[in-house]
Amino acid sequence: MFGRLGPVELILILCIALVVFGPSKLPQVGRALGQAIQEFKKGSSEVKKEINSITEDTPDNDKKA
Prior knowledge:
Largest sheet: none
Number of strands: 0
Radius of gyration: 21 Å
Order of helices and strands: HH
């Protein structure tokens, strides 16, 4: 229910953004939001790589037989 946005919800969000930011600022806000999402994805992938490298370097204590 909360994870999916349909066309009606997207139009409603766009209308609210248009009223709040105005038509002249809307492209700048969209660009900034896109860059923020891109940076977040880049940072999270770096964290995943770091976690994977740490877990690969540590010996498994469960495999002692």
